[in-house]
Amino acid sequence: MTDVTVNLYDNGPYEVSGEFQIKDGEGNEFSIEGTQYLCRCGQSSDKPFCDGSHRRAGFEDQARAG
Predict the structure, then answer these.
(1) Are 30 and 47 in contact (CB under 8 A)?
(2) Do the Cβ atoms of 62 and 9 come closer than 8 Å?
(3) In 1-66, which ranges are continuous DSSP H helix?
(4) CA-CA-CA-CA dihedral for 44, 49, 55, 58, to nearest 10
(5) Which CATH code, of 3.40.50, 3.40.5, 1.10.3470, 1.25.40, is assigned to 5-57?
(6) For the segment 8-62, what is each residue's pLDDT rounded down to a tens digit?
(7) Who contacts 62 (Cβ-Cβ below 8 Å, separation ≥6)?
(8) How far is residue 13's CA from residue 56's CA, in Å, rounded to a whole number?
(9) Predicted pLDDT at 45
(10) What is the C-alpha separation between 34 and 18, in angstroms, rounded?
């Protein structure tokens, strides 16, 4: 099994590192190896990937475990 790590950045994206797949609503796959940043603010023009729009949108969230 490959290790995958997900980091949540305050006021920013999810950082996902490792070897993984993302499936869209139709089941199409994005195969990823390395590090990718995923949008949390909903404003990216490159969804599901982050394009930095959270800064312009003023997105704020400090998710914490537990």
Answers:
(1) no
(2) no
(3) 53-57
(4) 60
(5) 3.40.5
(6) 999 999 999 999 999 999 999 989 999 999 999 999 999 999 999 999 999 999 9
(7) 10, 11
(8) 13
(9) 97
(10) 5
